[in-house]
Design goal:
This protein is α+β, with helices and mostly antiparallel strands. The chain is 26% helix and 20% strand. Strands 1, 2, 3, 4, 5, 6, 7, 8, 9 and 10 form a ten-stranded mixed beta sheet that branches. A hairpin with a 6-residue loop joins strand 6 and strand 7. Helix 3 packs across helix 4. The termini are far apart.
Length: 305
């Protein structure tokens, strides 16, 4: 009998290598706000009167038929804000009305506000700081009104818009961007660039105006030579055309509604105040910084009057 050992079985195959780790997920961009998502599917309507006339046609039944209506507007471009930049965006829009024209990019507005200590996150809770910032980035005079949009201040706002110059207005913004009264918890900024005035028929206001071809009841001011009816007893109703950083579209608000919203800005939203984020708030809080205050930008330089 042979003494040889039987054949040794071959060793088992090595275990398979461990699976490779999954590829890293692509970096996700911050979730868009609803107003940003809506804006992505739309485009702004350009022109001094184009969108305004569409707005008026949609709301034609709400205007008194016994009044003569006169429209003035100077188009400002739209920009959707990124974070709490409503005031800075409103200012950027208004810079486009400077005469002679001045090209100011949004990053310049933001960085100037940050470097001057007017803001930490893009917020602007001080109309005084807004006026200073406007003068620096726009190179124009900024006139700060306080005491609310009434009386002489209301007349100044109307006259300024009649002259096709912008007004920066803080207010409480409702969910449809209309003015509301939330004690400042939804404080927001808009730029008004136009005005719609309802005056008594037969008050002699048709001079320096022309009928609108699409709305026979509407007259459009032709040039700056038409006298502004602010303070005239014939002036019965006033609306402003405004834009803000959460919509590409113009909005039409009664001057009374924006005045009431503006005058009651009192406190910051408690959720925002306690979220751990740093904000620049003036001494005296939101009320001292915004309530009853507006900024008139004199964008027409000397020699351009």
């Amino acid at each position: 009998m042979s003494g040889e050992c039987p054949d040794t079985p071959p060793p088992p195959p090595p275990p398979p290598p461990p699976p490779l780790p999954p590829p890293p997920a692509p970096a996700s961009s911050p979730k868009k706000k609803l107003y940003q998502t809506i804006a992505c599917s739309r485009s702004a309507v350009e022109g001094n009167l184009t969108e305004a006339c569409v707005l008026l046609a949609e709301r034609e039944s709400s205007f008194r038929k016994d009044l003569q209506w006169i429209l003035v507007n100077k188009y400002v471009p739209s920009l959707i804000q990124d974070g709490p930049q409503c005031g800075l965006v409103a200012l950027w829009m208004s810079t486009h009305l400077r005469e002679p024209q001045l090209c100011v990019d949004m990053e310049t507005v933001v960085q100037t506000a940050l470097s001057r200590g007017y803001t930490a996150q893009g917020e602007m809770f001080s109309a005084d700081d807004m006026a200073l910032l406007a003068e620096e980035v726009c190179g124009c005079k900024a006139e700060l009104l306080s005491g609310g949009i009434k009386g002489d201040n209301a007349a100044a706002v109307i006259t300024h818009l009649w002259g096709r110059q912008p007004v920066l207005i803080p207010y409480d913004e409702d969910y449809n961007h209309e003015p509301c009264r939330r004690s400042g918890h939804r404080a927001h900024w808009a730029v008004a660039s136009g005005v719609l005035l309802g005056v008594e028929q037969g008050s002699g206001r048709k001079e320096h105006t022309r009928p609108d071809p699409t709305l026979p009841w509407l007259y459009v001011a032709i040039d700056n030579s038409a006298p502004c009816p602010a303070g005239d007893t014939a002036l019965k109703e006033v609306y402003v055309l405004a834009k803000q950083g959460k919509s590409l579209r113009y909005q039409l608000w009664s001057l009374d509604s924006i005045a009431k919203s503006n005058e009651q800005l009192r406190t910051m939203d408690p959720k925002r105040a306690s979220d751990g984020t740093q904000y620049v708030v003036p001494l005296g809080g939101v009320e001292a910084g915004l309530a009853g205050r507006v900024v008139l930008l004199h964008t027409r330089m000397e020699g351009q009057q």
